[in-house]
Write a structure and sequence with these properties.
Keywords: Membrane, Transmembrane, Transmembrane helix. This is DUF4405 domain-containing protein. By secondary structure, the chain is mainly alpha-helical. It has one domain. Helix content is about 80%, strand content about 0%. The protein is built from four helices and no strands. The radius of gyration is 17 Å and the shape is elongated.
């Protein structure tokens, strides 16, 4: 099975640049921009997390059927999206992250 890294990451990067540009130009509010990416990170987490637990359950119980490989594929693809969106999440919360880490004191 071949994973498509760029098919997942490039549209997300493009969408983030678009929404960030719209926010910086005053077309959308910051809260909309942040909430949109919080929703996307939640969806990616749920797909990857639930898929991982289902795969673990199937593996532990020795259950094999044709859906396993497709579930693994989407688990990995959602995990890739989760990594990229987590970077965006850190960008949205740079101020909070700096305060937590003690940067700039």
């Amino acid at each position: 099975m071949e994973y498509t890294i760029f098919n997942v990451t490039l549209p997300l990067i493009g969408l983030y640049i678009l929404t960030y540009t719209l926010y910086r130009n005053g077309r959308i509010r910051r809260s909309f921009h942040v909430n949109l990416w919080n929703l996307i990170i939640l969806i990616a987490f749920l797909i990857s997390g639930i898929g991982g637990f289902v795969l673990l359950f199937l593996l532990e119980n020795g259950i094999r059927f044709s859906l396993n490989s497709q579930l693994l594929y989407w688990h990995v693809e959602a995990g890739l999206a989760l990594v990229v969106v987590t970077v965006f999440h850190f960008h949205c919360y740079t101020g909070s992250l700096n305060r937590i880490l003690g940067v700039g004191r």
